[in-house]
Design brief:
Blueprint lengths: L3 H19 L2 E11 L6 E4 L10 E5 L5 E6 L13 E5 L2 E3 L14 E6 L5 E16 L2 E12 L7 E10 L9 E12 L3 H30 L1
Antiparallel strand pairs: 1-4, 1-11, 2-3, 3-6, 4-5, 5-7, 7-8, 8-9, 9-10, 10-11
Helix pairs in contact: 1-2
């Protein structure tokens, strides 16, 4: 009997663990943002070069306003809607020059926004993952970093941001720039939590065995 009760306690813990894991809260950030019509963002070019996107060397968003243009169907963490503002600092993002430019990131890029529930998100992007030029009229820069929020759903969670610029009309035409943002995290109990619960249940089982043994000894007398 002394061996059965602790074993049952262990089995119960395993069941609780599986149940909790199945009910783990998943939080996803998934949205896109564009330069607002009231913004004044510019895109700088190689000195002396023609005003074409393939000759550009950096994104310069000085004085620009970014607004959410769409939210992913699976987004349940940022609580954003179209029109919400997004702050991007510093405003300068270098990505090299020419068709085969090398990425240049002189410091972390910080993006921040506030959800409808008051949760404040801060995202720091520190690495350039890739730079792709599909044609002379478009360029895509993907960056990697971490995001944290004031309510604690995200804690240095890996996040990605993809900046895409297009110049559909060719040289001299206006350039549209948008970004997409994604991060995902799950809230599950720490291993130490399970260890403490296991010890608690085993202790309760052992105490029950001791009480049962003592009661049987009393009856025998």
């Amino acid at each position: 009997m002394k061996k059965v009760v602790p074993a049952l306690a262990v089995a119960l813990i395993a069941g609780l663990g599986a149940s909790s894991a199945a009910q783990a809260a998943v939080h996803i950030i998934d949205f896109s943002a564009d330069i607002s019509s009231s913004g004044g963002g510019t895109l700088s070019y190689v000195p002396g070069g023609a005003s074409t996107l393939d000759k550009s060397s950096e994104f310069d968003f000085d004085g620009t306003s970014l607004v959410v243009s769409g939210v992913g169907a699976d987004d349940n963490a940022s609580f954003l809607v179209a029109g919400n503002p997004v702050t991007l600092t510093p405003s300068l993002i270098d990505y090299g020059t020419g068709m085969g430019g090398t990425a240049i990131l002189n410091g972390p890029i910080t993006k921040s926004w506030t959800g409808s529930d008051g949760d404040v998100f801060t995202e720091k992007l520190t690495d350039v993952v890739s730079i792709n030029r599909g044609t002379t009229d478009d360029i895509t820069v993907k960056l990697l970093g971490e995001v944290t929020d004031s309510l604690g759903f995200f804690n240095m969670t890996p996040a990605t941001m993809t900046l895409a610029a297009t110049q559909d009309g060719g040289p001299g035409a206006s350039i549209s720039v948008s970004l997409t943002n994604f991060a995902k995290t799950s809230t599950v109990p720490e291993p130490s939590t399970w260890a403490m619960m296991l010890l608690g249940f085993v202790s309760l089982g052992y105490a029950a065995v001791r009480r049962g043994s003592k009661n049987r000894s009393t009856l025998a007398i």
